Automatic annotation (TrEMBL):
Organism: Flavobacterium helocola
Main localization category: cytoplasm
Entry similarity comment: Belongs to the methyltransferase superfamily. RsmI family.
Cited InterPro entries: 4pyrrol_Mease, 4pyrrol_Methylase_sf, 4pyrrole_Mease_sub1, 4pyrrole_Mease_sub2, rRNA_ssu_MeTfrase_I, SAM_MeTrfase_RsmI_CS
UniProt entry keywords in alphabetical sequence: Cytoplasm, Methyltransferase, rRNA processing, S-adenosyl-L-methionine, Transferase
Record lineage: Bacteria, Pseudomonadati, Bacteroidota, Flavobacteriia, Flavobacteriales
One MF annotation (Gene Ontology) recorded for this entry: methyltransferase activity
Annotated CDD domains: RsmI
Name of the encoding gene: rsmI
EC number: 2.1.1.198
Protein name in UniProt: Ribosomal RNA small subunit methyltransferase I
Domain Tetrapyrrole methylase per the UniProt entry, residue ranges: 3-202
Length: 225
């Protein structure tokens, strides 16, 4: 029976791979991988021999129609990204939407994603939060910051290492130097670290010790007092 499986993969520690994810990847007809070289190492580790095709942000617009046809013909397909849950700041949304529109079953397995442990680690309120992902690089960046000045929920951002200090400085500028910030990097990996403090304090920390690796920044919302 045709179905698209959305399968999370570890964000660093291979022990976070679930038994169910391995089972699905072994049983489907095809695996769609963001980078077949990266995913090839994962599949080899878990002795998964299923054929892979490349599916990434540069080709997903072109491949969706053909993949839908394959699913309609009865194939089962699993979508994975380089790390974490597909479609969360990664390719996957377009194919998922096309399947839903065409009445094809979609099933997303629970599993690893970077922003959840970062949010919990932060110590900031997590009963209400907003996931912002990556901020615009240039066009629309200031507009986004101005809009978020009134956000009272905890905010979550993905930030590349070389933009971290600039982004922290912008948080201090737009939200205030005393706004609570938590930076988690290399989650689940050997050098995992979470730095908490005000925007000003966290910026000083990373100015003295430049960050490396995958980074999630959690920012407290505007006080309602």
């Amino acid at each position: 029976m045709s179905k698209l499986y959305i399968v999370p993969t570890p964000i660093g520690n291979l022990e976070d791979m679930t038994f169910r994810a391995i089972k699905v990847l072994k049983e489907v007809d095809l695996i769609l991988a963001e980078d077949t070289r990266t995913s090839g190492k994962l599949l080899k580790h878990f002795e998964i021999a299923t054929h892979m095709h490349s599916h990434h942000m540069h080709n997903e617009h072109k491949t969706v129609e053909n993949l839908v046809k394959r699913l309609q013909a009865g194939e089962t397909i699993a979508l994975i990204s380089d790390a974490g849950t597909p479609a969360i700041s990664d390719p996957g949304f377009l194919l998922t939407r096309a399947c839903v529109e065409n009445g094809i079953d979609v099933e997303c397995l629970p599993g690893a994603t970077a922003f959840v442990p970062a949010l919990v680690n932060s110590g900031l309120p997590n009963d209400k939060f907003v996931f912002e992902g990556f901020l615009p690089d240039k066009k629309g960046r200031q507009t986004r910051f101005l809009a978020l000045q009134e956000e009272y929920r905890t905010m979550i951002f993905y930030v590349s290492p070389h933009k971290l200090n600039k982004t922290l400085a912008e948080f201090a500028q737009y939200f205030g130097a005393d706004r609570s910030v938590s930076v988690s990097r290399e989650l689940s990996k050997l050098h995992e670290e979470t730095v908490r403090g005000t925007a000003e304090e966290v910026l000083k920390h990373f100015e003295a010790k430049p960050a490396k690796g995958e980074i999630v920044v959690v920012v407290g919302g505007k006080s309602l007092k």
